[in-house]
Specification:
Layout (H helix, E strand, L loop, with lengths): L1 E7 L10 E6 L4 E13 L8 E6 L10 E5 L6 E3 L3 E2 L17 E2 L1 E5 L1 E8 L4 E9 L1
Antiparallel strand pairs: 1-11, 2-10, 3-6, 3-9, 3-11, 4-5, 4-10, 7-8
């Protein structure tokens, strides 16, 4: 396991409850994401602040992929995102026809961290817990 970060979004701008900021990693992040820690900086409003962590789809990587979306929160926390697994036909695999099977998210791309609907000068720091 390795820990990548912090990846800082930069200071948000745009007005109270409307500010946004985002930043990309400067190098490709490669591995399987087992956990993501988000730390909020400043005083983002818990009732509106959103965070999106995604790959950028920078060539030659595939199109961007949203890894984690947190809405209306400003509480620092660990998250353990998992995505639905598909079979060879592209159909979601289920345990019993109703409960989807999930697995940790593999990536090989630059990563974007975004804070939205915050206040001016708010930001986030993000750490990625990866397995090579």
């Amino acid at each position: 396991m390795k820990l990548i970060g912090p990846i800082n979004s930069g200071d948000s701008t745009g007005g109270a409850g409307l500010s946004t900021a985002n930043a990309n990693t400067t190098t490709i992040v490669s591995g399987v994401i087992y956990g993501i820690y988000i730390k909020y900086n400043g005083s983002p409003p818990a009732g509106t602040t959103d965070v999106v962590i995604s790959t950028t789809g920078t060539s030659p990587a595939p199109p961007s992929n949203t890894i984690l979306t947190i809405t209306d929160s400003a509480t620092a926390a660990w998250y353990y995102p998992r995505h639905v697994v598909h079979d060879e036909t592209g159909t979601a695999i289920t345990y019993d026809g109703t409960r989807d099977v999930h697995q940790a998210v593999p990536i090989h791309d630059t990563v974007n961290v975004k804070i939205d609907q915050a206040n001016d000068a708010d930001s986030i720091d993000v750490w990625l817990l990866l397995e090579d």
